[in-house]
Predict the 3D structure of the following.
Amino acid sequence: MRKIAATLVALGLTLGLLGAGVSATFTDSASANQQINVGSFAIGLQSDTPGASVSPDGKTLTCPILVPANSTAKFDPVGCHVMIANNGTLTPASVKLYAQVTVSGTPDLSRFMAQFNEGAGSWSPNMFGDTPMLSSLTAKTLISTTTVVPADFYTYLGWLELNNSDLNSVVLVTYSIEAAG
Amino acid sequence: MRKIAATLVALGLTLGLLGAGISATFTDSASATMSVHVGTFSMSISAVAPAGGTAVVSPDGKSVTVTCSDIQSSAAGSCISAITVTNTGSIPMQVGVAVAGPAAPFTSALSPIPPVAGPTLAPGDTYVVNGGLSWPTLTNAQLGLTYTVVYTFSASA
């Protein structure tokens, strides 16, 4: 029994050595790789309105500041032209336009109004309405959407007759353009 | 049974990853601002004291009280002071003047008489008028009395 066991052990070693010899091969390798480049997704703002300025990154457009010369009611006839450009390689699936008003001082927002006029871009029906008073825009409000970029629109501000409560105040309307793709 | 459970777990993970992939979107944003800055609107007043009299401006600069020296004879005379209003705001203003008093026989000595519409003052500009009292020869009826004229300067824009 011990002899059989010893033979089996020897056989096992032999097979083991033979196995090591069999596994030695010339080797070589190759590989294939596949890469995908994800494009860029970015929108930028521009304006041809005299006095308008755009931040270096193109993300912030500041329209000219309106300064009433007197208390007389006025609707700014010039407006501010906001142009949205596609600075990326991907096409946005949607562009949403929001508006929100913030103030400093004690202006009566029921006397200030804004208007949004669609330019190019197939904007959806203007949810801004007909010259709404800014008192309705104290919260961020969706006013229009489009799926076409480049797109543009015009904004206007106006006010009814001002009084002393409006003095030394600032009424700021911020239009947020949010693109998704 | 354990194998089925493991398969279901794996399937759940796969679906979960697929779901995360579907909801992922590229986003970007920008903002444009448009603003109205309503300026300041205010005026101040001062006056030159007449000879022998005083001119005191209130702390808020909104009124000046000019006091003439006491009249020492019955002879006709006047007490005139140069009054200056200044546009201390940032908005141009149109200034009007209203006169109240004095009781006869004293009269207001406003000169020049402002136009009905009043002058327009740009920010920082001043408007100077001469104001005061004139009187004819006095009698005993005026002895011991005080006569006052009030000029009210109003601004609008």
Summary: The longest helix of chain B spans residues 2-23. The interface with chain A takes residues 25-41, 89, 91-92, 156-157 of chain B (CB under 8 Å). Chain B has one domain: 43-156.
